[in-house]
């Protein structure tokens, strides 16, 4: 299975979100066509327990910790994944940052996929709400 893009999921404290945005932009993550800096984020509740020998940004060793943080989703080209992860780690405060790189098999970003708005064959609603080819109805 071949793919051109990955989606990165990054969990980070809200306090570090502006620095993350700059790091992502520096790696050209979130570049979609004629737009850049494209990403989504939402606040989530996360939970972890720092183990012996850890140096947690939040929490204390051997104590369960729950805190709000941001889950950030951004797209990047497959060949830029390593560079993007390095950029994220350079601004991330966690000892063990959670960064998931997920291959995207199909997206609306591929140049090989035709834009249906530019298609020669237009679809319209036929009887009972079914879609039908407008060219075949004109015969």
Describe the structure.
It is a single chain. This protein has 139 residues and is an alpha+beta fold. It has 3 helices and 6 strands, in the order E-H-E-E-H-E-E-E-H. A 4-stranded antiparallel β-sheet has the order 2-3-1-4, covered by helices on one side. A two-stranded antiparallel sheet has the order 5-6. 18% of the residues lie in helices and 30% in strands. The two termini are 42 Å apart. It has helices spanning 17-26, 81-91, 134-137; strands spanning 5-12, 40-48, 65-77, 99-104, 123-125, 131-133. Residues 119-127 and 129-139 have low confidence and may be disordered. Strand 5 (123-125) and strand 6 form a beta hairpin.
Short summary:
The protein is elongated, with a radius of gyration of 22 Å.
Strand-helix topology:
Layout: E1 5-12, H1 17-26, E2 40-48, E3 65-77, H2 81-91, E4 99-104, E5 123-125, E6 131-133, H3 134-137
Antiparallel strand pairs: 1-3, 1-4, 2-3, 5-6
Helix pairs in contact: 1-2
Radius of gyration (Å): 22 Å
> Which range does the strand content fall in?
25-35%
List the strand order in the largest sheet. Answer: 2-3-1-4
What structural category characterises the helix and strand content?
alpha+beta
Low-confidence stretches: 119-127, 129-139
Helix content: 10-25%
Distance between the termini: 42 Å
Could you say which overall geometry the principal axes of the C-alpha atoms support?
A: elongated
Quote the average pLDDT.
85
Main beta sheet, described?
4 strands, antiparallel
Care to count the β-strands? 6
């Amino acid at each position: 299975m071949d793919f051109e893009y990955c989606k990165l999921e990054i969990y980070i404290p809200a306090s570090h979100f502006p620095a993350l945005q700059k790091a992502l932009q520096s790696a050209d993550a979130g570049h979609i066509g004629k737009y850049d800096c494209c990403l989504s984020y939402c606040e989530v509740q996360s939970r972890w327990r720092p183990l012996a020998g850890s140096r947690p940004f939040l929490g204390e060793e051997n104590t369960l910790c729950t805190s709000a943080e941001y889950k950030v989703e951004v797209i990047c080209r497959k060949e830029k994944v390593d560079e993007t992860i390095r950029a994220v780690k350079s601004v991330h405060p966690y000892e063990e940052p959670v960064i998931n790189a997920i291959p995207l098999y199909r997206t609306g970003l591929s140049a090989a996929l035709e834009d249906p708005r530019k298609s020669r064959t237009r679809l319209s609603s036929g009887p009972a709400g079914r879609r039908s080819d407008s060219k075949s109805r004109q015969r």
